[in-house]
Specification:
Number of helices: 7
Shape: globular
Strand order of the largest sheet: 6-7-8-3-9-10
Structural class: alpha/beta
């Protein structure tokens, strides 16, 4: 049986006047790409924010690598083991290289190792030729590639993707989806991917959870 790396049990999340998640249970196995699919307002992004520890549930339990996350848990140390990429690239006003190197510098990697890792990741995403370019001069697709390279360069244990292709035009979206899947498979990254595009999920994911009105209706493989 595949090793479960992240699990939520009977999660409920209430906001004033709204129940965003209703008794949701969900698990992610090591090395798999798990998609959350549903229309806008289905609860996908709320579930993602609880999984990546940006929100606390109103009720229920989060278990990360066999350990229950409690109010006394060092959340910051857990977040440093995971990374989230959003729909809009959130890049610093500097060069492509400096953006991708940022997380490694914060973690105090040696300078030569930073250069090696950044160069490798820029090559994986086909943007090595942009290393010295300022982020203000990038296209939307190039900016999202930089955002993904920055997220993956320090090899996180879990990658969360929140509609990462939604703002791109179809040709750029298709090429980036293929490149991202290749990199994720090469790195064997555990990935949770939120999308309202069922076709995207069917092409990318190992398993899919279908959500509606704060509940998971079905979980299965793309074939199922």
């Amino acid at each position: 049986m595949d090793k479960v790396i992240l699990r939520m049990e009977n999660i409920t999340k209430d906001f004033p006047g709204v129940r965003a998640l209703d008794n949701v249970s969900f698990e992610v196995c090591k090395g798999e790409i798990h998609a959350l699919v549903g229309e806008h307002g289905a609860g996908k992004s709320t579930l993602l924010r609880i999984l990546n520890l940006l929100e606390r549930p109103s009720q229920g339990e989060i278990v990360l690598q066999g350990r229950v996350v409690t109010p006394t848990t060092n959340i910051l140390s857990l977040r440093r083991r995971m990374v989230t990429v959003f729909q809009e690239p959130l890049l610093f006003s500097s060069t492509v290289f400096e953006n991708v190197a940022y997380g490694l510098k914060v973690r105090k990697y040696p300078k030569d190792e930073i250069v090696e890792k950044v160069d490798q990741m820029l090559l994986k995403f086909g943007i090595h030729h942009l290393a010295g370019r300022h982020t203000s001069g990038l296209s939307g697709g190039e900016a999202q590639r930089v955002s993904l390279a920055r997220a993956l360069v320090f090899e996180p244990e879990i990658l969360f993707l929140d509609e990462p292709f939604a703002s791109l035009d179809p040709p750029a979206k298709e090429v980036l989806r293929e490149d991202l899947e290749r990199v994720i498979r090469e790195m064997q990254l555990t990935t949770v991917y939120v999308t309202h595009d069922r076709t995207e999920a069917l092409m990318l994911a190992d398993r899919i959870a279908v959500m509606d009105k704060g509940s998971i209706l079905q979980i299965g493989t793309p074939e199922q």
